[in-house]
Amino acid sequence: MVDDGSSHGGSAHGGSHYRSTALPRVAAAPADMDGTGASFRPSTPLGLTPPVMSLGQSHHSASAFMSALSLNTPRLVARQASTGLGPIAHRAGMVLDSNTLIKVDDYPRDKHDVSWNPSWFPRHISGAEKVRCVPGTGIIGVAQPTVHGVRGILNSLNAGRAVGPNLIEGESSRRRVLWLNLREEPLLYVNGRSVVLREIHEPFQNIEAFRGISEQRLRDLEYRLKEDVVAEASRCGGSVLLHEELQHSVIDEAWEAVPPDCVMTPEEVFFRLRVEGYRVQYVRVPSTSGRAPNAGFFDMLVQAMVALADRDTWVVVNCQTGIARSTVAMVAACQVQHWRGFIAPLAPSTQAAAAAAAAAAAAPVGTPVIKASKHSGNVVAAESPNVPPVPQDAAMAHTDRGLLAGWYQPVLQMVRLLVGGGREAKERTDRFVDRCAHVGNLRVEVFTLRALVAKSMQGAANPTYNATRAAVALRRYMLLVLFDAYLADRTAHDPDFLRPYYALDGVAFSDSDTEADVVSSPVPAVAAATAVASAASAAAAASAAAVHASARHGERSFKAWLASRRELVGLLRSVQNSTLTSLEAAPDATEISSDMKRAALERRGIMLNTDTILKLDDFGFTEELGDEVYPGLHNFRRVPGSRVYAVATPTADAARAVSRLLRTAHAGGALHFVNLREEPIVYVKDRPFVLRSVQKPFGNLEGFTDMDADRLERAEERLKADVVDEARRCGGRVLMHMENQRGVLQVFWEDVEEDEVQTPREVCEQASEGAAVKYLRVPMAPGAVPSTTCFDALVDLVRGSAAEPDAHFLFFCQRG
Questions:
Q1: How far is CA 14 from the centre of its chain?
Q2: CA distances from 21 to 81, 101, 423, 722, 744 (A)
């Protein structure tokens, strides 16, 4: 899968060679952009509400935004030439200036590029490429269509006034359409074709300055761009200079006659279609091409679908080329509709099921250090476009099968950090990813790019480019899994989370908007176009109000949910910053016997997996307190003159002994066990064991930093379940590791009964022996300065015990 929209007709690294003789490189000039920030005030001859973008403040901010760009962007003025560069040199609009051109939103097709497949969509629609539908979901993806292409898709979906069967489901109540445009770059429709704003010196690349732009500001810029284009047509005798990529890396120019009413923003196009009677609602959800979406993208998608898409609504998403961004949005839309109860979990096809079964036999596994094996590039296309490619070699490496199933080291860690439901979220996401894989499988893309990295490392090529692309693809996939986990978590706590809060038959899908209401007055074409723009903006504002009204009903967004899980944010950041490392995995830590190795490779737990071990956290210390010797107790001490004690992580026997000792010293007072460990611990046969990485068995497991107490305790409950499961699977034995006196890791079998596996909370509560005992968790990172959250937790602890004058505290960490 190629990232859509970032570069077409260019080199492998996206740096296209500008070889057009019709448009040479131009020289810099000190001309400055108009930065007055004057508000746009279009005429409204029909007395309609002016566009939202013209209401002073929004356009003032847009003007200020473009003025700010002029301070940091070198201005280029085209040389006067017989080729027609004069108009570019004289461009002085707020958006379309002498540094920019208008490029037809099209690119040369590769001979292997498939624009339509009858298994994707039943009708080949002119002006709409890569139209594909996920059967039974109402989710459709498409490349940027022409106006006729949009109308053709709507006709196929029976989204007009006429009632009849649609091409996909036949007789169906599904008649409405929610259209989500994912483009982040300013667009216009000129004579029915989409055109995009580009810089002269980078005509094949999206303009970097627009990255991360908001929907409102993007709308403002498009209306400004329309003004500039109409002004150029008026200045140049009714024609506009357009540029088009007819061959790879070659851009040509041509004059096109443009009537004023044939220049429209995408918003105006869809408003006119509504005027014609089409039941379609348009929402812009900007997403950066060639990058993984941010959390806000998913929130905007949820808000739009909850507000404007019910069970009987088609959801159509488009990006530029209909590949990466639209596929991500299709998967996310399927996830939303699934958790709304509108679609059932998709069952994999026969071939996908076979591939999944083979992968499950080897997954989850860690990825090896990146190297080109004989299997790494040996991938062929699957029989069905909806199924990921499968390796030709039936004896494909165990590791490669796991990678094809998406079990990369960061994915394993992510599933572990999600604690409950992580594996289920991945399984659901995988099914939707496979069903949306018409033009490319988001999961297999990582595998393919990883093979390219391995191939480039064999030769003299720099692997950084493909490694970066692989990391972007991996982040996309991981974000989709996290998004599913978020939806599951939110709906579990609030069943009404995804219910609509806006009447679909209100402003969004009203039948009262007719052409006579808007454009039937005897006014010139320019005035009519302005009226349509005004009404289109008003309709868009109403739709946006519906979306934001829906957003207000949700307590927590995906962005907030993810930000509250700093360990997951850190994991995503590590994938972005350490591209090669994110594709690697742990080598074998020790040479062990065949039965032990088999047991390790068969681990399938959420916490205890093929990349983790259980390491004994008891170093055999004993401590004398008076005349008594306490095995399993280390560094026990008291703050003089207080009721505060500290100790290393005790064994279960030592915890009971200390509890009795402190109850005797402080009769009647409640004992507070305060666990400061940040890593998950489980007690097996009264001894503490800690979860560690196979690759780094002597250091704390990465990923649990900043995890809050509640999720850490849930992780320990999950670890306990994994240990019990291994004991059942291995005949009452669990594979353990320990560090000997020479610092060497040793592996051994431990006979374990199910009731001999406990969490720290269970151990401390049992240590009370019926007395008043409280257990608290305040995670602190070892070897680091405690966070302010830790201090807040300790303050709350002291305040909460203020009513207990005889309360005493026992703090414990790993070494005390």
A1: 23
A2: 11, 16, 56, 67, 69
- Phi and psi torsions of 127, nearest 5°: 85, 5
255: helix, strand or coil:
strand
Mean pLDDT of the chain: 74
> Which run of H or E residues covers position 735?
strand 733-739
Q: Which residues pair with 776 in a beta bridge?
A: 674
**What are the tens digits of pLDDT across the range 346-378?**
555 444 444 444 444 444 433 333 433 333 333
CA distances from 156 to 122, 146, 173 (A): 9, 15, 14
Query: Which residue type is seen at 53?
Result: M
Using CA atoms, how far residue 779 sits from 239, 409, 658, 764, 765, in Å, is 68, 24, 22, 16, 19
Two structure tokens written together for 674: 């305060």
For residue 549, CA distances in Å to 304, 306, 542, 552, 649 come to: 10, 10, 10, 5, 51
Residue 539's pLDDT is 56
Sign of CA dihedral 200, 202, 204, 206: negative
Report the distance separating Cα 571 and Cα 307, nearest Å. 32
Question: Residue type for 93, please?
Answer: G
Q: Give CA–CA dist 121/134, Å, rounded.
A: 9
Query: Which one-letter amino acid corresponds to residue 498?
Result: L
Q: What DSSP letter does each residue of 128-153 carry, written as one string?
A: --S-EEETTTTEEEE----HHHHHHH
State the pLDDT confidence band at 739, using cuts at 50, 70 and 90: confident
Cα 673 to Cα 661: distance, rounded to the nearest angstrom: 14
Report the C-alpha gap between 18 and 6 in whole angstroms. 15
Q: Are 683 and 785 in contact (CB under 8 A)?
A: no
Question: Do residues 734 and 750 touch, judged by C-beta distance below 8 A?
Answer: yes
CB 546 within 8 A of CB 302: no
pTM of the model: 0.72
What spatial distance separates the first Cα and last Cα of the chain, rounded to whole Å? 52
Residue 475: pLDDT over 70:
yes
Amino acid code (one letter) for 569: V
How confident is the model over 146-184, as pLDDT tens digits?
Answer: 999 999 999 988 888 665 666 666 556 667 999 999 999
Question: Is the CB of residue 368 less than 8 Å from the CB of residue 580?
Answer: no
CB neighbour class for 686 (10 Å; exposed up to 12, middle 13-18, buried from 19): middle
CA 780, 786, 792, 797 torsion: positive or negative? positive
Contact assessment for residue 441 and residue 595, using Cβ atoms and an 8 Å cutoff: no
φ/ψ of 720, rounded to 5, equals: -60, -45
Contact residues for 468 (Cβ-Cβ < 8 A; gap 6+): 579
